[in-house]
Amino acid sequence: MKKTHFYTIFLGLLCGLPVLAQNDTLNVLDEVFLTDTKLKDFSTGQQVTVLNDSILKKNGALLTSALNFNTNIYFKENGLGMVSSPSFRGTSASQTAVLWNGININSQFNGQTDFNTLNAAGYDNISVRGGGGSVVYGTGAIGGTVHLNTNLDFSEKTKQDIFLKYGSFNTLDARYKVKTSGNKWSLSVAAARNSSDNDYEWPIEGKKNENGEFYNNNLNLGFAYRLNEKSTLKFYSEIFDGERHFSLIRPSETKTKYQNFDTRNLLEWVSEFGDFVSVARLALLDENYRYYANIATENYSSGDAQTFIGKYDLNYSVSKTLELNSVLTNTYTDGNGSGITENTRNIFSSAVLMKHRPFQKFQYELGIRKEITDNYESPLLFSAGTHYKFNDFYSLKMNISRNFRIPTYNDLYWAGAGNPELNPETSNQVELGNHFKHKDFKFSLTGYYIQIDDMIRWLPSETGMWRPRNEESVETYGIEVLTGWQKQIFKGHQISASGTYAYTVSENMNTGYQLIYVPFHKATGSLTYAFKDFSIDYQLLYNGEVYTRSDNNSRYNMDAYLVSNLGLSYNFGKKNTYKIGARVLNFFDEEYRSVEDRWMPGRNFNIYLNLNF
Amino acid sequence: MKRISKLLTMAILSGFFLNSCSSDDDIVDPIEEPQPEQAYSDGFFVLNEGGSGGGSVTFIDNDLQNVENEIYQQVNAEDDPGQYIQSIFFNEDLAYIVSNGSNMITIVDRYTFEYVDRIDSGLLSPRYGVIENGKIYVTNQGNYEAPGITEFDDFIAIIDLETLEIEQTIETNTVLEYIHEEDGLIYVQKAAFGTGNEIAVIDSNSDEIITTIGTEETLNSFEIEDGVLYALSSNKLEKIDLATGELLVEFEINSDAGNAGNLEFENDMIYYTIGNSVFMMEESADTVPEEALFSYTSNSDYGVMYGFEVENDRIYIADGGDFASNSFVEIYTTSGELIENIEVGVGPNGFYFND
């Protein structure tokens, strides 16, 4: 019944298109791929991909989908919208750091970010940087970093953006954003709701996704005020309130659900004096979860951690080509939860960075960081990056770094089991990137090697008690390709394409076997063709087969899958700032899953309306 | 979060409690019927609890030559016996496969492994079962409580053998684990995870707990033989008079190698394990053995002696491996000589004889 309804709407849209396409105003594509941002200043030798607002609208509110279809990051998702853990360059879920406006928000409890507990609508853009970044961003920045950013400007304009999307399985994605500013102040508010019954059919006779429903509400706020010519105050805030039921493999299983309520606040004071720029930051992060192991009862396990961060960043421009930067950070965390008695920990870190461009074509960057804490032996972290631009066509980037992932609250403080003797996981890594650019075409080929030691694993001790230990070493290497192209072929005809490919080998150094759930091959692609007000786009995601068995017994491999999305949109309104569109997700009805027995949806539909004024 | 709780559950399950056999496994079908051609007879089943995919069952014939893996999936296409399969019990021609993770019991023909029926409502983390008096008694561990919650929600489900409906439940407010039947009485171990030292006795006519037998130390496994209850804890073996509950004799077991577990009684011999070693003593012995009968080699981080059984002059050991790839079982003579090492499925946890 529901399905028929969507077919009708979709067919209706198709019929309407030839008429709508008569409008002859040029539609300028606003997708930006492979664009450097402010991260560029601290990313010498690395590559930053930016997903802007329009890409974030294409793939729905679940951050997993947006990143899965547009980046090299591989995701292991327990069914759509369920627990989603990333593997960036073959590393573990706690070896990808997520930064919210520059602040590390990985969970204090397990060191990870579940990418389905963030709503893509909250951010103006999301940047993804491959490779190490612990010197600047701290724990977990081994495989790469994901940056969630809010933009503030002083353009003295007001812009509002309403986005409403409704689709199969009663899925709602509603977003409202307003940006308004004077010449001394700027305000950005983004509110969003995402909900779904998520009861899609499985490709098994008579089975559907049960107990998979979820919702979340997200509010993001950004405010800036210019105190004077040289001094600005900024404030960022985010509230995320979500509940997910975890889907079942069989109806007889115990139904569970997970609630999380996270707030993030950041106050920033930027001031300039002479050749110095000083940034003082105060942040308060509060993460809160409840896990109901049986929704039929009121019992739950929970965790609550508050993190206070004070950060002082001083940049000194010695000359036009030489910059020195020091960053002092104090992070104080107070956390408790089921199985964890209340514990506080304090980590002080200092980092020194230097960037130098001795001549026009060559730039390099050096950084070191050291932490002081009672919790673990802190290794000296470093990074060194170079960028040499041979000509307009070719440049070469290189980066070497040592990074870490610190023990989590669970690792350190789990009642009776936490191990205070743990060391951080440390990585030594190197990457070499070849970047080509010709007119509207960009292409990069990056090779990397990472060795990670002291990987933390929970294992039984002599007494039978399970405790975490620094146990394993992993070696991961591979190549990454990023490419993008866009062109106006005739008047009114615009075409753009982008793609990524990753070849990843990630081996347990004790056994020599490829880690389970790390595909050798992943590729994504997108193609958009716009004619006048009408636009059609195609997206694809390919994940190669993965091992599910630690001995790489191929009999139990999970099949490769290729998922395609197809979208149509039409711009209208006086200034062409209104858009209506429809998308078919999993167009070819691929039967796929990224975790054993956890099927993903077949072909499904949505329609949307986007108003900008 | 979920991962951690599962991890801890697994931790607890394997850390404290490696035993997975029960005396009910050995029930010999008294009815000699002609068996179908591809019969899984004259051999035994190895239960593989499974990792992220479902569990599986391996059949090995008594000559240890013919090994068939995943027999349930082979016979019943597009189905599996569920997540984390825990145990099997038998009744006449039927085998009942208990899935702890999927809250269900799959009933198959024990000789063909063809699907017959399924109990899939009302169970909550089922562990072990036994059949008596037209009823199935199944221990359920309920929700694995969050730390700090002291009340246990474990229960015994009493299921009508014909309708497969749950007729009654018995709550004990303790953790529940093994269940044995002896002379019409149902014995339920009210102990697991290093806590509990009682056995509840249920009358299968009234379905009420008629008495509770206490042990001195925390129980991890027990056996009943000739009116004597043998109760094993990590460092003590107790013999208790089944009728009176009186302690007859107790033995201290001290070993640097770890905790004792996996109590088995076979042919007047008592067997138990410590770490990767098997110990054997005569029923009438005055002291526990100082020397192990034999030890086996394991690389498993948390699956050493994951399954253990003694049957017909053979000792069966299952090694849990890494729970993410196929592991193995080893079969020894009762004098400790290795007969065969056989690859089976993921996380083998028990042996069930089908003669």
Describe this entry's structure for a reader.
The complex is a heterodimer of chains A (613) and B (355). Chain A is mostly beta strands and 613 residues long. Chain A has 5 helices and 31 strands. Chain A has a 22-stranded antiparallel barrel. A 5-stranded mixed beta sheet of chain A has the order 1-6-7-4-5. The radius of gyration of chain A is 24 Å and the shape is globular. Residues 1-38 of chain A have low confidence and may be disordered. Chain B has 355 residues and is mostly beta strands. The model of chain B is unreliable at 1-35 (pLDDT under 50). In chain B, a hairpin with a 4-residue loop joins strand 26 and strand 27 (338-346). Chain B folds into 2 domains: 1-14 and 37-175, YVTN repeat-like/Quinoprotein amine dehydrogenase (Methylamine Dehydrogenase, Chain H, 7 Propeller), CATH 2.130.10.10; 253-355. The longest helix of chain B is centred in the first third of the chain and has 15 residues, at 2-16. The N and C termini of chain B lie far apart (44 Å). The radius of gyration of chain B is 19 Å and the shape is globular. The A-B interface holds A 83, 109-110, 204, 246, 249-254, 256, 258, 289, 291, 293-294, 297, 299-303, 338-339, 410, 415, 458-460, 462, 464-466, 516, 548-551, 553, 556, 595-597 and B 1-5, 7-8, 11-12, 14-16, 51-54, 78, 82-83, 101-104, 120-121, 123-125, 143-149, 153, 258-259, 301-302, 322, 324-326, 346.
In short:
The complex is a heterodimer of chains A (613) and B (355). Chain A is 7% helix and 56% strand.
